[in-house]
Design goal:
12 strands; five-stranded antiparallel β-sheet; alpha+beta; three-stranded antiparallel β-sheet; 760 residues; 34 helices
Length: 760
């Protein structure tokens, strides 16, 4: 099995494949019967033993598990735990002794070691080592190890000491076996009644007062038993029913005034959440977490928020009872606490409390830290879109978010609001007045300015009429409106896209206003020499309309027709619903003749000038060519959705990609990474990194979290923004790192089968 080390280096730094404590030496030490020597050998094997050594010495460790000495048994149990972690296939070797060890009652009792002199051990060291320097180093290591075992130097002839809990070590060993072996899991489900009885004894009487902490009887053993019960009761109704009464007893009788009691209670809550527990027991677990939210310790409050976030999907009504306390946690000064409270608050929004929750979240948005504003704004917009009671309330909510944190909203917020306003004909006058007032007060929030410019261009005539009964009368003249749009065009804060909205609004107002259009023509002509190519092209086309095709200007710039809203929530529901997917597949795709109509505006007008007496009929539909050419906010119907793609799956962890190409920017591809977990263990420290060819530009947004709960819990999502102006073939290289089943996982792979629609 091995030979004695022949290297010249010192033992701690020996570079040879074997050292002086190789299997033959350890084998003889384990079988000697001298307890300290056996303890030293077991410690060496557990800390330094390789996988081959563990396989060779597993039978010897198994024999020591049944030795009469509690000291040796404890060391053997801990060594078996380390061996199973290194070599999981050894589970079958240590399975039979565990049931016998459960009857162990040596939990914190004083036991006297037999009369022993270490001189024989010292002589073995002297005879075995070569140089004096080497002997001194080994003797120092031996002395340090004996100090760890509470054996003074020089050793006495008798040494009464306190044996640590054999029962605690046995429970730890069984937990390791059940996590790594399905056969062991099935085997130990038979001992659930015995484990329940042990825990009940701990809760009621306890084994020893020496292990009580703050009035809680041996909290370490209680926590370890609860973890084992959670593993045994998961997906097993019979075992869950056996432990339900005990869990209720622990939850109601444990003192929460000290941290030890809180640790036992939290482990009880985790066990209740993972097994098939009764409905009343789950409500009790949620109430315990609610009490944790009132604790002065920030760590306990964070743990409670994280656990409630896991429960909100399965026990929504029970978690709702603690909504006021969760909302109060938004004001925490700790960034991690406020972020977790924000996630839970957004998860608690439903159709019955949407008005009250939006008020709280909007108040938080005004004062929240900058790093939370983007998440808060996006969450408010999604919740408002999903649970809006009325269209007016929905519009007011989005306007408030744009006014407060417009620079932090998602890219699709502008398109969603313009579609919402366009589809609410009865609110056109109300919306244009609200937006005009907001634009007059602040032009720094670019999404707000874009929506306001679009709305003023579409419904500027309603703004000048002043016939809105829902808000105070507002007297606005044409010059004020034009001056405000010119201010937007000239502002250094305006983005090129914002200037495009303002220029188009001015052009549309030329058909809505009754006065002279010379001022508008002058502004348009100025931007014919703009450095921005898009803005310059727009100005050239508009100027051509004024000079050559003025008779067609009113028809081209007429109001946008009503369009159906097709927000992200509707897209998500369509993907999840099979029937909706079939309907979307059955929808007619744009024909080649329709696509051929999407020509440049000047070319279309040149063709029309050849037959001025019979101009071609204008298409007022959203998919009309002229609307597309003007690049108005309400673009043609989006193309067929790009199919999702599954790129990774391992032990229940799955990674899916979904794709969106915004119609207003075809060169941009938005990839949403969704990580799900259907296994029995949580995925923690999840990190997804990506790389693309040099001809592409990649921007990684922050993920929604780093933990994927087990059994289909809340997934992690992350957004990738890829700019591909040359329409080069898309290749994606991903690197995933995470922890799963107490093991670190790293996967690097390349995705070459991306849909052609994602880059062509």
């Amino acid at each position: 099995m091995g030979t004695q080390c022949t290297g010249t280096g010192s033992w701690p730094n020996c570079s040879t494949s074997t050292c002086w404590a190789t299997p033959p030496t350890l084998d003889s030490d384990l079988s000697q019967g001298i307890q300290p020597v056996q303890g030293l050998a077991l410690c060496t094997l557990s800390t330094m033993g390789s996988a081959e050594m563990c396989r060779d010495l597993a039978p010897e460790v198994e024999k020591l598990l049944l030795q009469p000495s509690p000291y040796v048994r404890k060391k053997a149990i801990l060594t078996a735990v380390h061996m199973i972690r290194k070599v999981p296939e050894l589970s079958s070797v240590f399975l039979p002794p565990c049931v016998h060890l459960l009857h162990e009652r040596h939990h914190g009792k004083a036991v006297g070691l037999p009369i022993l002199c270490f001189s024989s051990v010292d002589r073995r060291i002297e005879n075995r080592m070569g140089t004096p320097a080497h002997r001194r180093r080994v003797a120092h290591t031996h002395r340090h190890t004996r100090n760890r075992l509470s054996c003074p130097w020089p050793p006495p002839f008798t040494s009464p000491t306190l044996t640590p809990g054999i029962l605690l070590g046995t429970i730890t060993l069984i937990t390791e076996l059940c996590e790594r072996s399905p056969a062991a899991l099935k085997h130990f489900r038979k001992v659930v009644p015995q484990l329940v009885q042990i825990l009940r004894t701990l809760v009621t009487t306890g084994y020893s007062t020496e292990h009580s902490i703050s009035g809680v009887s041996d909290p370490f053993l209680q926590v370890q038993i609860l973890r084992l019960l959670r593993i045994l009761g998961r997906n097993h109704e019979e075992s869950s029913e056996t432990m339900n009464d005990l869990l209720a007893q622990v939850a109601t009788n444990t003192d929460t005034s000290r941290n030890a009691g809180n640790a036992v209670l939290f482990e009880t809550v985790l066990t209740i959440m993972d097994i098939h527990s009764a409905a009343g027991l789950r409500v009790l677990a949620v109430n315990i977490l609610g009490r944790f939210l009132l604790n002065s310790d920030r760590n306990i409050r964070y743990v409670a928020l994280t656990s409630l976030l896991r429960l909100v999907q399965s026990d929504h009504s029970a978690v709702q009872r603690h909504r006021p306390t969760v909302v109060d946690c938004l004001q925490e000064t700790d960034a991690s606490l406020s972020r977790r409270a924000l996630e839970l608050s957004l998860a608690l929004v439903n159709s019955s409390n949407v008005r009250a929750m939006m008020q709280e979240l909007q108040a938080f948005l005004e004062s929240c830290p900058p790093d939370l504003r983007a998440d808060c704004a996006s969450g408010i917009l999604l919740a408002a879109e999903r649970f809006a009671p009325t269209k007016r309330w929905h519009i007011d909510t989005i306007l408030h978010v744009l006014t407060t944190a417009g620079t932090h909203v998602r890219d699709d917020a502008v398109a969603n609001l313009t579609q919402l306003i366009g589809g609410a004909q009865e609110l056109h006058a109300y919306s244009v007045r609200r937006l005009y007032n907001a634009l007059a007060e602040d032009i720094s929030q670019q999404p707000l300015v874009q929506v306001a410019a679009w709305c003023i261009g579409e419904y500027g005539d309603l703004l000048l009429e002043g016939n809105c009964e829902e808000i105070e009368p507002l007297q606005v003249d044409e010059e004020e409106v034009l001056a405000l749009l010119e201010k937007v065009l000239q502002s250094h804060m305006s983005l090129p896209a914002t200037r495009g909205y303002a220029l188009t609004a001015l052009m549309k107002l030329s058909t809505r206003l009754q006065g002279d259009n010379n001022r508008i023509r002058q502004v348009v002509s100025i931007y014919r020499s703009c450095l921005d190519v898009e803005l310059q092209q727009r100005a050239v086309e508009y100027d051509t309309l004024f000079r050559k095709y003025d008779h067609m200007r009113a028809a081209i710039l007429e109001k946008m027709p009503l369009v159906e809203r097709d927000g992200p929530q509707a897209d998500e529901e369509a993907k999840q619903s099979k029937e909706a997917a079939q309907l979307s597949e059955a929808a007619p795709a744009p024909t080649e003749s329709q696509a051929s109509q999407l020509l440049d505006l000047l070319d279309l007008l040149d063709r029309a000038s050849g037959d001025a007496q019979h101009p071609p009929p204008l298409d007022p539909s959203p998919g009309g060519a002229l609307v597309y050419l003007l690049d108005l906010p309400c673009a043609p119907p989006p193309p067929a959705p790009i199919p999702d793609l599954k790129v990774f799956e391992r032990e229940g962890v799955q990674l899916n990609l979904s794709f969106i190409r915004p119609p207003e920017n075809p060169a941009l591809l938005l990839i949403t990474i969704t990580a799900t977990n259907s296994s029995e263990g949580d995925v923690t420290n999840f990190i997804c990194q990506a790389a693309v060819p040099k001809s592409l530009q990649l921007q990684l947004q922050a993920p929604s979290g780093n933990t994927v709960p087990a059994r289909g819990g809340l997934p992690i999502t992350q957004l990738f923004r890829i700019l591909n102006p040359n329409k080069a073939p898309l290749r994606l290289k991903l690197r995933l790192t995470y922890n799963h089943f107490h093991q670190s996982v790293q996967e690097i792979f390349e995705v070459n089968n991306l849909p052609v629609e994602s880059w062509q």
